[in-house]
Amino acid sequence: MSPTVGWRVGLTGLVLALAGLVVVPAEAAYSPQPRETWSANSVVFAVATHGDRVYIGGRFTNVRNVATGQTVKRSRVAAFDATTGQLITSFNPTVNSDVRAIAVSDDGSRIFLGGKFTDVDGFARSRLAALDRSGNVVATWTPSASGLVKDLLVDGTDVFVAGPFGKLDGKGRGGLAKVSATTGSLSSWKVPTRGGRPWAIANSSDGSDLLIAGSFTSLEGQPRVFLGAATKDSGDVTPWRPEAICDTCQLYDVTADGDGVFGAVGGPGGRAARWSSATGALQWAVRGDGNVQAVAVADGVLYAGGHFGPTFAGQTRHQLAALNPSSGRLLTWDPRLGGRDHPGVWALDPGQNFLRVGGGFRYVAGVPQSRFAEFPAA
Length: 378
Description:
Elements: H1 11-18, E1 38-40, E2 44-50, E3 53-58, E4 62-65, E5 71-73, E6 77-81, E7 99-104, E8 110-115, E9 119-120, E10 123-124, E11 128-132, E12 151-155, E13 158-162, E14 167-168, E15 171-172, E16 176-180, E17 193-194, E18 198-203, E19 209-214, E20 218-219, E21 222-223, E22 227-231, E23 250-257, E24 260-266, E25 271-276, E26 282-287, E27 292-298, E28 301-306, E29 311-312, E30 315-316, E31 320-323, E32 337-338, E33 345-350, E34 354-359, E35 363-364, E36 367-368, E37 372-376
Antiparallel strand pairs: 1-4, 2-3, 3-6, 4-5, 7-8, 8-11, 9-10, 12-13, 13-16, 14-15, 17-20, 18-19, 19-22, 20-21, 23-24, 24-25, 25-26, 27-28, 28-31, 29-30, 32-35, 33-34, 34-37, 35-36
C-alpha cells in the first residue's frame, strides 16, 4: 500500500479477513417507500444536506408540495427543512441556468453553486457562485469558470472545482481548480489533464487525497484512464494507478469507503465498479442497460443511480439500485422509480435519517414524487 495514497483498510475488515470470514453487509438501511415531500418540475442534478437544511439544484423552475398540491416558483435552487421536509420560503435566489453541483461550508454559512449559469440574482456569475444562508449572493466571492462546473468539494478553507472547463479566472486549469472558500481567490494548485476532462471529485477514504474521475487519459502527464488521485496540497498525482475499466467510456461519479473506491461508469455499457484503494485492481463491475451516474455508500451498502432500466445486474431495476460493496451482489431493495429512465438519477445524498435522491424520475413506488425523493431510515 502506497504511503502517498494513505488509504487504510478498516480495522473491522482487517480482523475479519485475518479470521477467514466473509463480510456480508446488511440489506439497505432505508425504506424503499419515500416520505411525502416536495417535488420539482424538471431535473434535480444536485442534493446537499448540512445540519438542519437540504439544498437541491438543477433545471427546475418550480417545486410542488406533493401532499397539498401547492406550487411555488424556485429558479434552479431550493432549500428544505431537513427534519420536516418543508420548503424554506425565505431562501429564494434566482439562477438563470442549470445548477449541477452544490457544496456547503463546514459551518453552514455559505452554499457554493456550480453549473451552467451566468447570472444569480442579477449578479454576473460565470458557472460559480456563493450564497449565504439567507440565499443572498456573496458579492465578494467571484471566481469564474470558462465552461460547465460539474462538481464541487469543500475541504476546510478550500473549494475544489471540477468539470469540462478549460480556464478559471482566465488561467489554464484543465477542468480542475482550487479556490479559497472565503475570498474565492484562485490557488496555484494544478493537476493538468489530457484526453478529456474531470466530471467528479471526492475525498479518499482517509481524506488525505482527492479522487478524480472523468473522461481523461492522463493526469499531470501520467497515464490514468478516467480515474486517479492527487494530493490536496501540492496537486501531485499519487502512485495509485487504478486498472482501466474500458477505453471509450467515462466515469460520472466516484466515492471511497474503507478499502474500496467506487465508480459510476457511463457507456457504452453502464456499470457500477469497485477498485482496491491499495493496489488499484478492478475488483468487480456490475452492468446495467444504461449509464450509472451516481454512487454513494451508507451503512455497508453501495447505492447506484443512473438512467438504466429495466435491467441492472441481470434483474429488473429502474434508475436506482443497492449492492453489496464487497462483492457487487445486487440487494433486494427496490424503490421502483418510474417515468422515463432518461435522464435518470444524478444525485445521491445518504444521511443518518434519509437517503435523498435527485434526478428525472416522475414516480417512486407508484406514487407521484417527481425528481426529488427522501427515503427514510428503515
